[in-house]
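Ticket #4471: complex job returned nothing on first submit. Input attached below:
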Amino acid sequence: MAVTDTVTGVEVHDVRFPTSRELTGSDAMNPDPDYSAAYVVLRTAAGGRGHGLCFTIGRGNDVVCAAVRALAPYVTGRPAPATAADLAALHRDLTHDSQLRWLGPEKGVAHMAAGALVNAAWDLAATGAGLPVWAFLAAMSPEDLVSLVDFRYLSDALTPDDALAILRAAEPGRAARAARLKAEGYPAYTTSPGWLGHDDATLVRLARQAVADGFRQIKLKVGADLDDDLRRLRLARETVGPGVRIAVDANQRWDVADAVRWMTELAPYEPYWIEEPTSPDDVLGHAAVRSGQPVRVATGEHAANRVVFKQLLQAGAVDFVQIDAARVAGVNENVAILLLAAKYGVPVCPHAGGVGLCELVQHLAMFDYVAVSGTRRDRVIEYVDHLHEHFTDPAVVTGGRYRAPTAPGFSARMKPLSVAAYRFPDGPVWRAGPDGDPDLDPGLDPEPDPTGGQEVPE
Amino acid sequence: MAVTDTVTGVEVHDVRFPTSRELTGSDAMNPDPDYSAAYVVLRTAAGGRGHGLCFTIGRGNDVVCAAVRALAPYVTGRPAPATAADLAALHRDLTHDSQLRWLGPEKGVAHMAAGALVNAAWDLAATGAGLPVWAFLAAMSPEDLVSLVDFRYLSDALTPDDALAILRAAEPGRAARAARLKAEGYPAYTTSPGWLGHDDATLVRLARQAVADGFRQIKLKVGADLDDDLRRLRLARETVGPGVRIAVDANQRWDVADAVRWMTELAPYEPYWIEEPTSPDDVLGHAAVRSGQPVRVATGEHAANRVVFKQLLQAGAVDFVQIDAARVAGVNENVAILLLAAKYGVPVCPHAGGVGLCELVQHLAMFDYVAVSGTRRDRVIEYVDHLHEHFTDPAVVTGGRYRAPTAPGFSARMKPLSVAAYRFPDGPVWRAGPDGDPDLDPGLDPEPDPTGGQEVPE
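Support reply: We reran it on our side without changes. The output follows.
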């Protein structure tokens, strides 16, 4: 008889990187982000650990930590999740507590916190199985995968039978696709050239570098000033030539008419998609933008939950579905979204960047290829080359492609030294201030103190 | 020259009422709510106070308190809001901080917390003007009212010019309508008979009582069991007769097909509306429910923001717009929603109940009558007769009508003794446990300790 392991505690750490000091990550709506994570560690009696995170851009990261603590009692004390059934039950408990549900329902801080915990449980379970999450998912039967999904509010667009049919159709080719994935990787695009904070010379230099590095798609932030955008897009197009895709991203800056007018102006430079043209809640607005101008529409990094994705697909509002690993309620809800996209035949091109989002979301795109959509056609994962050094199993992109993770788990574990150094507000980087020398070495534990994080007792 | 008052601090109190002990408030999705409030008090240097709250149903109320604390620095230290311009600026700062916006955007915990602070500022400003909030709003010029609204993402449905035209059209009749409002009040309906936790005898008794009390509309919770709902609706209809409206409320229980099937079955008993048939995020789902069965559709208490309301109206998804005073970002966003509803000619029937929602939302419906829609036709405010005793200026409903508040402010001030007694987890009611005698009198301050609340320093 198997000995049951138990979750003995949940830690949550408020980790913030002072990225606003360099304007990395600046766009039309987010001029000075401090890329941050509400970083979660589950611990089990047998010494297992599961790591997850919620990405934020600074202020308010503490609110997400508070939400994690409010949800922690649903995790602490339960058997360590190991199977599809365990992970489905945990996801359900975290999203359907009748009192906590009032805080969303299924959106915003409470939902993001649930996602961090669900993802930490997936890290724990996949680590226990000795598989990276993409392979752990791709090893599950179609029936187990269907059991992960909460179909509430989806049945007018996707039923369990629909989902089963999609997964069964993809089952025969799984092994061959997994082998190709390991050999070839998964296409990436890079946003590094296109931040609004870059001057033109930097844009040109980084665009040229991106092509040299093997990327076939780059992305530019737009939306603050039309003349600037026209000039920057022209420069980028001249630099990369006609064969490299240039996506543009307005980060929700526009109303519908603004988006139509602006993109009509930019269209001659052949942007590959316009991302987040308007409010992420505005399904009908995205549909109007899509029909009102010639550039394809992408959105999803801020879509609150599967119900919003369902409607974007039902309304024909999007050409690309941009899942985010850490905004919805974790792997389970993203499996639902992958299945919805497959049902409607819309490619999934994940959002990444931030802190740890590349590490997490690569697993979901790779699972989609191996076991859901069965294709990489028109699909590409965002890549931003920063902050990976803080992870023990960082995303690896070479030749413009994500390489399939081989280490067990979700690639979500941060280095203990990084957690200690960047903990807000008391870590040495923050104590030292913008001009100080954080003097990172002395006095830092090589492993984080299990009780030093804000541990929630059993 | 006027002396400028300054906001010196923000308190937030986690106040919870153990309503789950009596099953008051039970419905198909919320079996055991503990009606709660993240209760906010602004204090000014000149001794002014502004009161606001966010309603929750128990667990997670602390997370909203954490969000209020994260937002408090935007309030503390600024001039005490007094004018439309001040209130517009505060609303903008609380909803458009570039880092905090990531937590929503404009939804969930962070947005609700912003709403509590915005509403507290309205309480402060109206109190300073010596007017109840409904009259304070109704005394503003159309131009000032338009200036309160954040039109971002609205312009495809409502422009500032549209809003100005609506408000100017209603301006000539304001004084006459205010006089009628003071004389006649505003129609109410009661949900007290219809909680799922009531047995049939209680349902019949309370329905009969409601009619005797002058209500022309009652509401029943449905959605857990169709046979039960058929029996309860039949009993209610037999009790109140054909001339009294019976609304039904599924509290988001169904998928689209369930809602269509269920309401087709209930239709012979002539329910007046079906409220929250499905996910509050599902604009297209509500449109499908509306077109798929004969009963009118109402929703809005959980609609996250003005963008969702905009789409519900654009899609023809609702017959009634149910604003909530404490889910969106306060008075300013509700003015936007009232204007959207007026533009589309859809009546606003506010959600209330909970803790303090009747007190707050009555002001918005009365303002709508006096200065926006100009009519009470097909309009009615929800009323639930509990927890009003904890407010210093409780909502007054007599003869089935809300009486227009006359005291200055937003009716949002809780009695200090109630705040102290029900504070979670350390108030005497919670310390005593379900069977204990809280022994409320000894040791409680008659006024809350200004530093005893979780005060956020300047």
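Residues 441-458 of chain A have pLDDT under 50 and may be disordered. Closing as resolved unless it happens again.
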